[in-house]
Amino acid sequence: MKEFWSKRARDLVPYTPGEQPRQRNWIKLNTNENPYPPSQKALAAIRAAAGETLRLYPDPECTSLREALAATFDLKPAQVFVGNGSDEVLALCFQAFFDPERTILFPDVTYSFYPVFADLYGLSYREVPLDERFGLPLESFVGDNGGVVIANPNAPTGRAVSLCDIRTLLEGNPESVVIVDEAYVDFGAQSAVPLIDSYPNLVVVQTMSKSRALAGLRVGFALGNENLIAALNSVKNSFNSYTLDRLALAGAEGALRDGDYLRAITMKISSTRDWAADRLKRMGFEVSDSAANFLFISHPDIPAKVLLDGLRERGILVRWWDKPRISNYLRITVGTDQEMEALCQALTQMIEGA
Amino acid sequence: MKEFWSKRARDLVPYTPGEQPRQRNWIKLNTNENPYPPSQKALAAIRAAAGETLRLYPDPECTSLREALAATFDLKPAQVFVGNGSDEVLALCFQAFFDPERTILFPDVTYSFYPVFADLYGLSYREVPLDERFGLPLESFVGDNGGVVIANPNAPTGRAVSLCDIRTLLEGNPESVVIVDEAYVDFGAQSAVPLIDSYPNLVVVQTMSKSRALAGLRVGFALGNENLIAALNSVKNSFNSYTLDRLALAGAEGALRDGDYLRAITMKISSTRDWAADRLKRMGFEVSDSAANFLFISHPDIPAKVLLDGLRERGILVRWWDKPRISNYLRITVGTDQEMEALCQALTQMIEGA
Fold first, then answer.
1. Helical H runs in chain B?
2. pLDDT for A268
3. Which end of chain B is more exposed for a tag (fewer CB within 10 A), N or C?
């Protein structure tokens, strides 16, 4: 029954996030969360903000956090936009930069929220096929289009493109906005942030959910030319005056003050990823080169769905999609060494039992 | 310069919230915040949530908070939707329930975010004139329309309508969704929540920003028929999987466990409002009957803009709009007794000096 629903709402097929079990006894490798706790500086800032001032609205312009982000990335505050997680930031980008009349482009295998945003805002889009090894065919993203969205590293493959390739995309699309979704960039890819001053059509989106271990806080941000950031502000201020609460603002700023911790946990996760990838290859898995905090793997003999179910029986959650091209792959978040050891042992049992 | 902006973004006129000064030395009566601190139970719940689990995403379905709200309002959890402040909830309602082809109705004098939401989503609307005393002409809200939005009590007038009037609106619009924005209901109006089981076209929107003294936490909610709530979920899940962070979820649930405190502070604020209204009337002001935590006042001799500036010089922030019909009114948030005393003294000085 969809009586009273708007036409748009009736036709939506919402995004489905990975499961968030309410019990804590799972090895949870399904939503690319960080296995390490947030920075103590973030937690201390949150506790300090949990007081009387919560009766007051937050700063709608998020001035202090934007200043801290600008300092971190060597930009001006007017080149920084913050939002309630990078999903919200991306949604606002789709509204701010894309028009229904012109087709936007993104890969056929990528973050599956992009087509959902496009449908929500009535935008037409084309899913450009990646090559057989999930590489980005640059030439197919150049030419007449209404905008380009890529994730670097890409999800769920983990594959990264070079800054040189990003430049090619930017120079090949001088009339369109190119959004580079860098949710996972801190785990080993090159950020496009240094290109911002050279390309007025570049928007870089990042998040505090992954490398900063703050998925529960909901803070994402966009970096780009001041003119593009002004468009995001205009849309945001027509939607919700105060998208970040005082605790998220305080915690995010606390996390930015702890660059050493960011480097320590991202290096640790990258090193865990690399040994786990080697081990899985030796077990017979195809493992794509990942610059992210997850691995995208496929076994020549055992279907991914069978592995998904078998892992679940053994208390391990990973992610699988019933979709063309990737239905024989699992995406596995890089956890702690112990969690990855448990994963490898569980997969070994299944392979040996098969 | 609006190069690269979408057509929609170019045409937006964003909502302007009241000023949030970064210094704390103002008497801040401009954004209808609560002068009393949040419940200690809310603050304790937030501090308890500020730990390791912030590395994990929140529950995208906000199950625990929705259960607590359902218990509070004697509804089922499937009749409850929660969002990142009632502005977000209202924006999602406009997307979920209204179509561009059918004109929606709201009063000419009301929360000025409604026309902004309509423009953002390309909806046509008609602003129905309130009567001379800012009363709601019920008959003008019945008949062919694509939806009705009213605030009860209304902003910025503070005037409330009865449940009987709400029933008339619901029964007169069986084909349209009627949104009743009850941001200020706890200060003295009748809530329409008891009508939810009888009217499949009713959506009630409330917030924790005002009566619960949690404007800094960003929690709003919608209550209605399960079918309407399902539409909101569909739109929300096509926009942002996790709109509430773990701290907001925890704090809101903590606040709900403290009904005694809610009653104590809302009664105190209502009583302060009533004496301040009497005092202002005796000073010569026209003061509309307010069921909210603010007063809407006008002086026969001194223009509102002059009073606004004079109060600002005296360290007191209130709200004024340069808009038809209301440009000679000030909206003044009800603060503590001391703050209202200071307000009355400042206004007395100005009147005597005029």
1. 7-11, 40-49, 63-73, 85-97, 114-120, 163-172, 226-236, 246-256, 259-282, 304-313, 337-353
2. 98
3. N
Residues A176, A148 contacting (CB under 8 angstroms): yes
Sign of CA dihedral A332, A107, A262, A188: positive
The closest CB to that of B43, out of A51, A56, A240, belongs to A51
Asked if A241 contacts A231 with a C-beta cutoff of 8 angstroms, the reply is: no
Mean pLDDT for chain B overall: 97
pLDDT digits (tens, 9 = 90+) for A309-318: 999 999 999 9
- Using 50, 70 and 90 to split pLDDT, how confident is the model at A257? very high
Residue A101 has pLDDT above 90, yes or no: yes
Instruction: For residue A81, give the H/E element and its range.
Output: strand A80-83
Strand ordering across the sheet containing A125-128 = A80-83, A220-224, A202-207, A178-181, A148-151, A104-107, A125-128
Once rounded to an integer, what is the mean pLDDT over residues B225-235?
Answer: 97
Q: Indicate the fold that domain A40-257 takes in CATH.
A: Aspartate Aminotransferase; domain 2 (3.40.640)
User: pLDDT at residue B285 above 80?
Assistant: yes
Structure token digits, residue A146? 């209404």
pLDDT digits (tens, 9 = 90+) for B117-127: 999 999 999 99
Q: Write down the domain spans for chain A.
A: 16-37+260-353, 40-257
Q: Which residue of A has its CA nearest to B202?
A: A4
pLDDT higher than threshold 90 for residue A143: no
Question: Can you tell me the distance from the alpha carbon of B146 to that of A108, in angstroms, rounded to the nearest whole number?
Answer: 37
Kindly report the number of other CB atoms within 10 A of residue A307's CB atom: 25
3-state class (DSSP) for residue A291 = coil
From the number of C-beta atoms within 10 Å of its C-beta (0-12, 13-18, 19+), residue B257 rates as: middle
Predicted local distance difference test score (pLDDT) of residue B17:
87
**Are residues A242 and A60 in contact, defined by beta-carbon separation less than 8 angstroms?**
yes
Residues of A in contact with B119 (CB under 8 A): 238
Question: By the 8 A CB rule, do B109 and B135 touch?
Answer: no
Residues 307-326 of B with CB under 8 A from A: none
Residues from chain A contacting residue B16 (CB–CB below 8 Å): 237
Q: What CATH architecture applies to the domain A16-37+260-353?
A: Alpha-Beta Complex (3.90)
Q: Judge whether A182 and A220 are in contact, CB under 8 Å.
A: no
Whether the per-residue pLDDT at B95 is higher than 90: the answer is yes
Contact indicator for A86, A92 with CB cutoff of 8 Å: no
CB contact under 8 A, A238 and B200: no
CB contact under 8 A, B217 and A85: no
Top-tier CATH class for B18-37+260-353:
alpha beta
Residues of chain A with pLDDT > 90: what percent? 95
Residue B22 pLDDT > 80, yes or no?
Answer: no
Q: Do A56 and B215 touch (CB under 8 A)?
A: yes
Residue for token pair 């009355």: B344
Mean pLDDT (whole number) for B3-7: 95
Q: Is residue B1 over pLDDT 80?
A: no
What is the distance between the alpha carbons of residues A45 and A58, in angstroms, rounded to a whole number?
Answer: 15
